[in-house]
Amino acid sequence: MTGRRRPSSPRPFPRALAAATAATACTAVLASLLSACGSLPGAPGGSGEKEPLTVMTWAPVDTKATNMPGMPAMAEAYARWVNSRGGLDGHPLKVVTCNEHNDSVAAARCAQRAVDAKAVAVVGSYSQFGRSFISPLERNGIPYLGGYGVSDEEFASPLSYPVNGGQAALLAGNGRQLASVCERVSLVRPDTIQGDQMPALLSAGLADGSRAAAKDVRAPEDGTDYADAARRALDGVGAATGAAGTAKGAAGATGAGGCVTATLGERTDTFFDSFRRLQPDGSKVRIASVLGSVGQALVDRTGGRAGPLEGAYLTGWYPVASDPRWNPMRKVINDHAFGDNRIDPADPGVQTTWIAYTVLRAVVERLGKEGVEDITAHTVQQSLDRSAQAVDTGGLTPKLRWRSEDMLAVQDFPRTVNALVTYQAVRDGQLVAAKEGFVNVAGTLEKPRADG
Questions:
Q1: According to the UniProt entry, where is the signal peptide (predicted)?
Q2: I need a labelling partner for 208 at 20 to 30 A (CA). Which of 103, 142, 351, 419 fits?
């Protein structure tokens, strides 16, 4: 809870006086409890402050697969910051968080908690179990605003308002990025329902650069050793390894022009460790990934410029973390996260949460200007659906709007309104822009795709 602190009760009266001065005691002792004696100035229901707004942010924490603890932590820091400035258009912001556990049942329970809490929106959350969480939200009219973009339902449900192009944009963008430097590509991806879509998306980007479809290498989402996947990936780009050392691949090549891209979330570093051990001496195979699977923290942890990720090609949704457009977020983290090490400003989950709450704030302020003081899930939804006024995220995304005419014609992802990505690379141990500005992959996503 992040609402305004209530003032401490004054020193209690002696018992002998308390019985004789009940009315005074009620005013002094029970004011902080908002009793029948009256409300404190600025407290909910009192003068100078509007009703609190409750929102939910969920993400998986402490699981064996992908974890996103920075998302609920960023939400809590945002609430502390905005409440220190008077709330959202005068409404104190209350953030309820939930551990989604990377589990379909837990995801549904988080959604039900949002319903029980009368949340006006679920904001900046992560779950790959869209089927589990979206139904309770739809039944109760609760918008899902700025989810991470990892489930299909985020780009299909009329109650979902994505701020990025999700996994689809990242994979299509990564394919386009690699098409300029790779003759052959292997994709190492999780053996899950979500992972099953990745090969077709990556290959669509490769096709835009007149490259062949990627070699599909399935791997366990929570694996501890990826030697087998690494062997298959190397074989897919013509750089197979044998027991005696380097061996030529099926095409007789030694890996020149080959790229291996891995999208295994938190297990991506485990894969690249196995890959490094098996990569043939002198191999020219390049490595790649998407932001969220690889980030600056991983680059640092694996040796920086001397590590295995030096030279890697990466695709993200947003500008690089060093871009000054992130300075407002960094200031909020510095001033209101109190050294919370769960929050990494370079993490795309944290960044997505910041953008999602930026949108929420704009919507609430817009409703206030329209004279709407009773902010509910319904009024938030109506504003998102109908307003012609786009939300400015400070250049971190294009201006965002979710009217029907703003939706892109993207196969299987009809709620997409933002198909911009960024090309990044690891150079001298730092993630830097490999291409200035955004790259629009809408055209790639709108083309018919073969099944992966």
A1: 1-31
A2: 351
